[in-house]
Amino acid sequence: MANLGFIGLGRMGRHMARNLIKAGHTVTLFNRSQAVVDELVAEGGKRASSPAEVARNARVLFTCLTTPDVVESILRQALEGAQPGDIFVDHSTIGYADAQRIAAMCAEKGVQFIDAPVSGGPWGAEAGTLTIMCGGDKAAYEAVLPYLQIEGKKLYHLGPVGAGTVAKLCNNLLVGIHAAALAEAFVLGTKAGVDPKVLYEIISGATGNSAQIERNIPKFIFPGNFEAAFSVDHLHKDVALAVSLGKDQNVRMLLGALTQQLLEEARAAGYGQLDEAALIRPLEELTGVKVRA
Amino acid sequence: MANLGFIGLGRMGRHMARNLIKAGHTVTLFNRSQAVVDELVAEGGKRASSPAEVARNARVLFTCLTTPDVVESILRQALEGAQPGDIFVDHSTIGYADAQRIAAMCAEKGVQFIDAPVSGGPWGAEAGTLTIMCGGDKAAYEAVLPYLQIEGKKLYHLGPVGAGTVAKLCNNLLVGIHAAALAEAFVLGTKAGVDPKVLYEIISGATGNSAQIERNIPKFIFPGNFEAAFSVDHLHKDVALAVSLGKDQNVRMLLGALTQQLLEEARAAGYGQLDEAALIRPLEELTGVKVRA
Amino acid sequence: MANLGFIGLGRMGRHMARNLIKAGHTVTLFNRSQAVVDELVAEGGKRASSPAEVARNARVLFTCLTTPDVVESILRQALEGAQPGDIFVDHSTIGYADAQRIAAMCAEKGVQFIDAPVSGGPWGAEAGTLTIMCGGDKAAYEAVLPYLQIEGKKLYHLGPVGAGTVAKLCNNLLVGIHAAALAEAFVLGTKAGVDPKVLYEIISGATGNSAQIERNIPKFIFPGNFEAAFSVDHLHKDVALAVSLGKDQNVRMLLGALTQQLLEEARAAGYGQLDEAALIRPLEELTGVKVRA
Amino acid sequence: MANLGFIGLGRMGRHMARNLIKAGHTVTLFNRSQAVVDELVAEGGKRASSPAEVARNARVLFTCLTTPDVVESILRQALEGAQPGDIFVDHSTIGYADAQRIAAMCAEKGVQFIDAPVSGGPWGAEAGTLTIMCGGDKAAYEAVLPYLQIEGKKLYHLGPVGAGTVAKLCNNLLVGIHAAALAEAFVLGTKAGVDPKVLYEIISGATGNSAQIERNIPKFIFPGNFEAAFSVDHLHKDVALAVSLGKDQNVRMLLGALTQQLLEEARAAGYGQLDEAALIRPLEELTGVKVRA
Ligand SMILES: NC(=O)C1=CN([C@@H]2O[C@H](COP(=O)(O)OP(=O)(O)OC[C@H]3O[C@@H](n4cnc5c(N)ncnc54)[C@H](OP(=O)(O)O)[C@@H]3O)[C@@H](O)[C@H]2O)C=CC1
Ligand SMILES: NC(=O)C1=CN([C@@H]2O[C@H](COP(=O)(O)OP(=O)(O)OC[C@H]3O[C@@H](n4cnc5c(N)ncnc54)[C@H](OP(=O)(O)O)[C@@H]3O)[C@@H](O)[C@H]2O)C=CC1
Ligand SMILES: NC(=O)C1=CN([C@@H]2O[C@H](COP(=O)(O)OP(=O)(O)OC[C@H]3O[C@@H](n4cnc5c(N)ncnc54)[C@H](OP(=O)(O)O)[C@@H]3O)[C@@H](O)[C@H]2O)C=CC1
Questions:
Q1: Where does the signal peptide begin and end (chains A, B, C, D) (predicted)?
Q2: pLDDT per position as a tens digit, B198-247
Q3: Is domain A165-287 annotated with CATH 2.60.40.1930?
Q4: How many CA atoms lie within 13 A of D224 on its CB side?
């Protein structure tokens, strides 16, 4: 059994860490707030009081944090406790340039960095069925593969550092656009008099369907329950990172750029902490329509 | 067995007419170009030389044409041969106001009009598995239901005239946005160095998936074969009709409006007659990337 | 002195009619609401009780109404009183295809139609300094030129019927985009802490200036007075007509299409009857910023 | 007479430096490429071989460079030669956060930083009529005011560091949107058959006018001469900085975001080094229209 570390025990990370513990590994944990650490320590995890302490106890360190700045700052601290040969695996969604800058920072201490963003939501994290998209050294990837297989089901090594991030940003760009698109279609149909439940039944079986429609309509929008599984703020960060990757790659991204602004709108309306399905709410309020069932 | 009529034997209509013939009905046919009529007559259909002649021979008349103008003009001609009590079922995708105007025109002659747009593509038309979304008098709908059950699998009566059209336009609005969105995501990922085949494998199993991704990427974009199953021109028409419905209903449709212009771009680039998957081509050309596999 | 007619005595038309009366012409008037007719009759105009009655008394008929539908319906009624050789001059902003359809309807009765939309606002109408953009028969244009010279200062004959409309729609497309653009710039600057008065002083003297900035900021936005000189509803109509002309001409209009939706947003927010400067209000409300001075 | 420094002798900087020399000041110069330094040395400037050398010889240092990264790197080098009490005045257009970060870096060495972006183009720089928008310490601003008065005519102190940048970004956001807007209007009008020269005459005197129309149409677009006075790349940088400021300030910027992508399109089409008026060229090419006169 291996000595692993996990930093960032939020909506996603807590499940991934628990699955690693359950599989019998020694997992040293750090999190800003302590309640979730208490819980996981009760299940066999080990508490550390700093990122550096985690790194001292772990040969493979996993992180699942928020923005690129947070990831960089935590990993800088972790590097103080790391040894040459250690591997850092980051499950947060960060930018392409961020991944490369952080990898360079790690390389200075002889640590290998793998960007390993995930898709599948808290449900997938809990079930261990995540899609994990990795970029980085192939041998390092293979070294951590046994642990990734505990966290997820569909594992990909896509190329050098940043490649996992690219795939993840492409996916979440689509998540953002699709979430904004379904808002337009369902508000329009409902306002024009069609029963939204039947509309959902039709579209979810037809050419206009998307994974977002299947996720957002029945679980969040119909019941009017926008408690965050994946927040507007996170999706805003990801779409902004995708549009920014477009800028670096000189790819025109009209729908992406517009969707970023619609996420900005939802944030300005006070919905940043709600689930991304709440992207429909500004339009509902503007038009006086509620897509509920 | 019933006396039916079918006008408009294009990519969709020919399959629907054939299925009605195969089911044993007497189907009188009219089409602008004759080759397809020859074919269907060989299989048991009856040729007519005008829309009015079709109407004289049919108690239920199906149409599957292109733009609202064409539908209106053909049905005006058909009305000359119709009898009070006949039912006209239109499978074309037209506008909400168009459906209502045409229904009023039919009502003057005692003919009932059902807007019955479909989803499922030529494959679905051939297999008889279409989704058919109907608006109009409930009794009239029930009268034609046996024939609709030959043409499709998922049949909906959604309300008064125009209700089927609303559902269809909501679906195709999503088709348009999703087709434009996948262009951005796959050009971005490919340009940033990820293998588009793996990207497709990942996204089609993840939260960014859409029916359009599953349709357009493997069947059209990867092989670079843009022969139309559903043309850019038709999708442009539909998205424009949806945006126009938004105007009537006072619903702000930012992504819809932008997508209409991207379809305009594809038309201006000369791709109007290609399959709607070709929406990716202007962006491929701008960025020098080809998403092929 | 000539026998003229004027129908549509709204914010613009009343001033134009008054100027024609003041110049000594016999002007027969019709308007839906009567208060303004009373006023102009007191100044020398003649009241008519229908469009046809105006047409019977006038060899040149001016209209300044709202939407294409209203113009078409009023002119259809007027044609009942018209004589071959009469000229109809329409100052409303309508669509390109509308102008051509109405001209054809007039031609059937031997009446010539000139589309003659204007720019300059109620101020320009009052001062007789309007820009007037005409399309139609050159000789007919020259026949009415003496009256146009009373209504405006900058007079253009741009080509056959519809040509005046094209120029006007291009201008108002810019009006719409510029009005939406200044909202973004001034809300951004104000939110980021710059005094909007100084910001206005700078930008109005710099490369970012526009006629809309000079109109909307000091007259409407700073005082927070959005009483309509030119309403959101009218601008929405015009931008929609321009985008629709783009569709006919197969010109991609991304900013135009987006601006149409922002006008839709302002209408949905209840500001349709306010001045178009109110396009800034949804963004002010979203961001909690007021650009006032 | 004062000891001044100037780094960045491009399209703008060369004129500003020359005006300072002409006014009798001792101006030490540095530029990456030397031809322009030769010229200005011949007119009385002093050549330095590094940014640090400029700083050693100057109590007030002006810069007019390109991107935030370049400004930061050059000023970091300059600080090595600076003395406490020196003032750095940056005329480049950089971001709000950039200005603050650079000011903090300067403050560590006792140097005061003033962000002082300009508007007016090479013409204004040459004529000494620039608008200069400053942020920073009020006393420092007053200390450099005599030199700013040589470079420009309209001088503003808008608040603490970053305030000048905010005003400039608001202005250039409008420049970008207006440049993209005129492309749509003039391509549309020309395609619909109106003579672009007359269209320009009308619009430039009407409510749709903008400073961009007066600049881009007669000087660049009509003659088809897109040699850069202000490049697409620079405008892209500025609009991206404005949209990014919107992100920091949580202001939805739909037209801004779209315009950034249109600039991306022009860059991808190979027009980054052309004048920003070339923003019309992708649309001209798409539609087959040339707005020339
Ligand atoms: N293709 C698809 O996947 C789907 C299409 N639809 C909708 O179904 C309708 C038909 O689509 P599809 O079959 O693909 O279109 P096609 O272009 O393949 O067929 C169009 C039919 O309309 C006829 N037609 C066109 N213009 C005229 C005219 N001026 N006068 C007389 N007949 C005319 C054509 O005649 P001719 O054979 O002589 O050209 C042909 O029979 C459209 O409204 C479309 O939006 C809906 C769902 C899916
Ligand atoms: N305002 C401006 O700054 C400018 C306006 N325009 C264009 O000029 C036209 C008129 O604008 P404006 O004067 O501002 O508009 P107003 O709304 O002030 O006036 C509209 C006129 O149309 C009449 N009208 C409206 N609906 C009907 C109807 N159903 N039947 C009969 N009459 C009707 C109104 O009658 P009633 O008095 O009874 O309501 C009124 O006389 C529009 O096309 C506008 O786009 C062009 C340039 C500038
Ligand atoms: N042009 C305009 O109309 C306006 C421009 N501005 C802003 O002013 C600034 C300058 O614009 P402009 O003069 O047009 O730009 P130019 O591209 O003409 O000049 C850029 C200057 O920066 C120098 N430079 C660029 N990269 C580097 C580098 N890596 N290391 C050292 N020096 C470098 C160039 O040196 P070299 O000569 O060796 O290339 C040149 O001196 C920009 O921030 C722009 O946004 C503001 C208002 C108007």
A1: none
A2: 999 999 999 999 999 999 999 999 999 999 999 999 999 999 999 999 99
A3: no
A4: 6
